[in-house]
Write a structure and sequence with these properties.
The chain has a single domain, classed as Immunoglobulin-like. Helix content is 4%, strand content 45%. The chain is built from one helix and eight strands, in the order βββββββαβ. It is globular and about 40 Å long. The relative contact order is 0.33. It binds copper (II) ion.
Length: 118
Amino acid sequence: MSRIDHVIAAGSQEVWNVRSSNQPHTFHIHGATFHVLEVEGEEPPNYLRGPKDTVFVGDDHSVKLAVQFDTHTDPETPYMYHCHILRHEDNGMMGQFVVVEPGTEETVSTTLDRDSGH
Ligand SMILES: [Cu+2]
């Protein structure tokens, strides 16, 4: 809860490579949508085309995603991305990012002091 994993410029698009290791996971992201570019280096099947916010990643599989981030900015309130298998997310398979004005990425603190409200 006290860390920011990524600082994203508002409205930007990034390519994220998501890989699972020895068990399947369901990657889910808040505040953004993505298109699946590749599954295991191949074009995705038809059912994976179109905008998504969740994708299944089989064990020892990888997906390449074109993630489109929102234009709303708030350097202090992060969005989450996480595995959607509840016992995984409850055990910490989760990260956080903030969306900021382009050009201000370097000025944003990547640690949050939750006790003081910042
Ligand atoms: Cu998982």
